[in-house]
Design brief:
By secondary structure, the chain is of the alpha/beta class. 46% of the residues lie in helices and 17% in strands.
Length: 210
């Protein structure tokens, strides 16, 4: 495994904000940073992964970079696509809600793999919520550009999560985590459920024994 020091921001937020030129510039930096290998590029944030997989489109009109961008995008994988379930046991029984990040479920069509990782942990009960794939309202920078609609989506998502009475909420995108955590605080329920992340080892270390 290698972690190129030259890598930089994926450019997703710049693209969301309409700054296409900066998004393309960052795409070129990253393609160069990961050049010289055909190994997989593994990402643990759904929004970043979706954008990196879209580099072929981002640079489609650049004749000098289009082919390189397509080749790079074909190497990108979400971490849940490459990590295999391993025997593990929760330190205590846990009710876990998995929040589908839109950029993972819809953008990358990845739904089963994160759930399989969670179900492999003995002592974890994965609890479904209504409209699990409905947006939480974060949506890149949507919570900044359309705060009222974003807040409605946030409140609806938080209600559905709290109805499930989880011990831990798991998501694969930092935007979702921040949005739902803020919604929990607004609902006065920040202590009722804690966040883990299916694509980050903190969740495994804190709650799981092997």
């Amino acid at each position: 495994m290698s972690v190129p020091e030259e890598q930089t921001c994926c450019g997703a937020l710049h693209a969301h904000a309409g700054d296409g030129e900066r998004a393309r510039e960052l795409a070129r930096y990253n393609i160069d940073a990961f050049a010289g290998s055909d190994t997989k590029v593994v990402v643990n944030a759904a929004g970043c992964g979706a954008h990196l997989k879209d580099y072929g489109h981002v640079l489609a009109d650049d004749p000098l970079w289009a082919d390189r961008a397509k080749s790079f995008a074909a190497r990108v994988r979400d971490v849940s696509e490459v990590v295999k379930p391993v025997p593990a046991r929760a330190r205590r029984s846990l009710r876990v809600v998995y929040q589908d990040a839109c950029h993972l479920a819809h953008g990358q069509r990845i739904r089963a793999q994160p759930r399989a990782l969670l179900r492999a942990i003995e002592g974890v009960t994965l609890v479904d919520i209504e409209e699990a794939e409905r947006c939480c309202g974060s949506a890149g920078i949507y919570n900044l550009t359309h705060p009222e609609v974003s807040r409605e989506l946030q409140e609806d998502k938080v209600r559905k999560i709290l109805d499930a009475s989880p011990d831990v909420i798991v998501s694969a995108n930092p935007g979702c985590m921040l949005q739902i955590a803020a919604g929990l605080r607004s609902a006065g329920s920040s202590g009722q459920a804690r966040f883990g992340a299916s694509s980050r080892p903190r969740f495994m270390r804190k709650y799981v024994q092997r």
